[in-house]
Design brief:
Elements: H1 9-12, H2 14-24, E1 31-33, H3 35-42, E2 50-53, H4 57-66, E3 70-75, E4 80-85, E5 88-94, E6 96-101, E7 106-110, H5 114-119, E8 129-130, E9 136-137, H6 143-148, H7 158-164, H8 167-179, H9 188-197, H10 206-217, H11 223-231, H12 234-238, H13 244-257, H14 263-270, H15 275-278, H16 283-297, H17 302-309, H18 311-324, H19 333-342, H20 358-374, H21 381-389
Parallel strand pairs: 2-5
Antiparallel strand pairs: 1-2, 1-8, 3-4, 4-5, 6-7, 8-9
Length: 401
């Protein structure tokens, strides 16, 4: 296959070119690598630019200082120096090869061999490099062909790559969801290796597992990958009791509703025992997940969900509820959610004082709110006050309506 060229603002950016030029002017290789090259070839936005070089880390730091750039030793034991150019960090990593691996991290040795550097990478589509002028290099051969075919394939053997870092099991399924072609199915060698090592996922930190799962569930359609995870027992080691088949129904509903979902909605549909803890979610995300799951399991109507949860989370709840029930979306569900989300409870504590106070006041407000919701948010403050106090609002001397 003829090697193409990549282009784009990410490569032409003067700040990136300054880092590449700093290295090449000193006689070293300066190659963009991995995700930036892959995404540029796929027409996907590039967010981070990683650079590979045969210059040793201390040389990279010295060159950066001489060029007026800032060097931060973010991973110097693994050969990585972050060079800050124009306020943007560029991870510059020395060519390397693994000396010893432990299933979670590796001991590396620096190298001057581009092919050795490519051979230690996870997937063939990530073992692609680009020069400063955009010329793409495929040191191992096959990487470009795999990328064009949307074929996610491990470099070398899947067994060896996974044994080096068990997180690659999840990365495999995540890459299949993000960049693979579901019509081609999944690489059989990779599936066999994932099945054989699925139990090793429990050795990984929950933060790493959670980060991969969030990215996977954020893919346009993660359902085929998640189903494959269930069939290989990978999902069971991450989210016991998760319902993989629900996800396909949810994605179908999202497509019909033109409402692409985020990872939180899809995680709520999957379920699974103690998902927030097992994926080490942030407090805010864990709270939203619990609210969403409780709302889905509750009896509130669509408008009530809008009032209690707000428009975004209510949409999530309606879609998840329909997916779990293998049913259809309610009639005019968007209008009902908007109605509830825009409703403002018209009764204030001061409206019931001094007639009520303390726990009695709280209980009365709660009962009034439930009645107001059941009545479609129609009763005004005066009507609710009369209902609670049992006398017309005009008889009260505080003047509140």
């Amino acid at each position: 296959m003829t090697a193409p060229r990549v282009s784009g603002d990410w490569l032409q950016n003067p700040d990136t070119q300054a880092v590449l030029g700093m290295l090449s002017a000193a006689g070293f290789h300066a190659l963009c690598v991995g995700g930036c090259v892959r995404n540029a070839l796929l027409g996907v936005p590039v967010s981070d630019v990683d650079i590979a070089t045969n210059a040793l880390p201390e040389t990279v730091a010295a060159l950066a200082q001489a060029a007026g750039l800032r060097a931060v030793p973010t991973g110097i034991e693994h050969g990585t120096v972050t060079v800050v150019s124009g306020g943007v960090g560029h991870e510059v990593t020395t060519f390397r090869h693994d000396v010893e691996t432990f299933g979670r991290h590796a001991r590396v040795a620096f190298s001057a061999d581009l092919r050795a550097d490519a051979a230690r990478r996870d997937f063939t589509m990530n073992a692609l490099y680009a020069q400063a002028d955009g010329q793409v290099l495929d040191p191992l051969g096959g990487g470009l062909a795999d990328l064009c075919a949307r074929r996610v394939r491990f470099v070398g053997t899947a067994e060896h790559r996974i044994a080096e870092d068990y997180l690659r099991i999840l990365r495999f399924f995540r890459f299949c969801a993000q960049h693979g072609d579901p019509a081609q199915g999944f690489d059989s060698q990779a599936l066999a290796a994932c099945t054989a090592h699925a139990g090793q996922l429990e050795r990984l930190s929950r933060e790493r597992v959670g980060a991969e799962m969030r990215k996977l569930l954020d893919a346009a359609d993660p359902a085929p990958a998640v189903l494959a995870m269930a069939e290989t027992d990978v999902l069971g080691h991450i989210l016991p009791d998760a319902k993989a088949t629900v996800l396909a129904r949810l994605i179908a509903l999202e497509t019909r509703a033109c409402d692409p979902g985020g990872w939180l909605r899809r995680l709520a549909a999957l379920g699974g025992e103690a998902a927030a803890e097992r994926l080490r979610l942030s407090r805010a995300a864990a709270r939203d997940l619990q609210r969403l799951k409780s709302a889905v399991a509750g009896a509130d109507g669509t408008a009530a969900l809008g009032y209690r949860l707000g428009a975004k989370l209510a949409c999530d709840a309606v879609l998840v509820r329909a997916a779990l029930a293998d049913g259809d979306l309610p009639q005019e569900w968007r209008r009902q959610i908007a109605c509830g989300a825009g409703a403002v409870f018209p009764l204030r504590p001061a409206d019931l004082m001094p007639a009520l106070k303390g726990p009695a006041l709280g209980a009365a407000l709660k009962q009034a709110e439930e009645y107001w919701i059941d009545q479609g948010f129609r009763p005004d403050g005066a009507a609710l006050k009369q209902r609670v106090l049992g006398r017309p609002a005009a008889d009260d001397s505080d003047g509140h309506a």
